Amino acid sequence: MMELVGSILILAGAAFHFSAGLGMLRMPDAYTRMQAGTKATTLGNTLLLAGLAFYHPGWSPKLLIIAYFVLMTNPVSSHALARAAYSIGIPMFGGSGIDALRDRDRKLRSET
Amino acid sequence: MIRSLFTILAIVLLGAVFATIAIGYSEQQSLRPLAESYVQLVPRDLGAANVVTGILLPYRAFDTLGEVAVLFMVAASVGLILGAGHRRPEERGEDVQEAARPSSEIVQTGSQILAPLISIFAAYIIMNGHLSAGGGFQGGAVIASCVLLILLTYPEHQINVAFLSIAESLAGALFVLTGIIGLIAAGGFLDNHILPLGQFGAFFSAGAIPILSVLLGVKVGCELSVILDRFRPQP
Description:
The structure holds 2 protein chains of 2 kinds.
Chain A: H1 2-26, H2 30-55, H3 60-87, H4 100-111
Helix pairs in contact in A: 1-2, 2-3
Chain B: H1 2-24, H2 33-46, H3 51-59, H4 61-82, H5 105-127, H6 136-153, H7 161-185, H8 209-230
Helix pairs in contact in B: 2-3, 4-8, 5-6, 6-8, 7-8
């Protein structure tokens, strides 16, 4: 029973990783590719580690630490990368339409 | 058309070469005589659960010392090449770069949480070198990754290079000194029998190997940190 639950979780994690790969190939610009990769791999990794914890309950503390580490690093690093890409002026895909950072900068500039 | 044909041909030929290797490969069922003697000898003779560390530190000590020396020379030459240009950018006739953009709040908070975690992990790797995968070199590299994170988050942060250099030199001197003590008190250079072996698999065991691991970790971590600091644009 435990192994079945673990297998289903690992399979779900693999499916999310697959969607991450698909997003990297199919998304139109750097920013959308980045968010596809980050969100899907973060959840996929967490599911994989949860599945492993069902397989080997003794590993749970270490797996928890690894999951915490992935949850901490993955979004922060992709945030930093996306900001760096934005600041050197990598163009956005026209269809996204929203640029919250530009709007915030304009608002800050008009206030001062 | 011809070009893509050549590409396909090259891929097929490469595939054929690798296929023969892959088909002819059979996994070894037993250890080779040399590996088997090491696997039996290291836990019995040195009291180290991690055979690789046992080979790396006491058995192949000169080799390890050579690697440390190579790393030291790399650090010195990087310092010589990159650190020499202390002249101001205007004097070199280049455009003065504008000040680095401050990193965002998310990155700062993330690195404040991560830096202590990475340091603890590095200490764990170094201290468990004789028990599980890890050791001085690996832990030192993890320490340097923590320093790199701090440098990325706070580009203006000044690292105390003098302290790092002193710590590195001290660790290197103590490493060689431990080796010479092994030459006098035990069987040979960097022999780990100068301290009691202790219980097999315990945290304090395997003689002098943990001490050597710590010294190596400090040395490698300081060296790589200095190299990383040298790669920053000098003010």
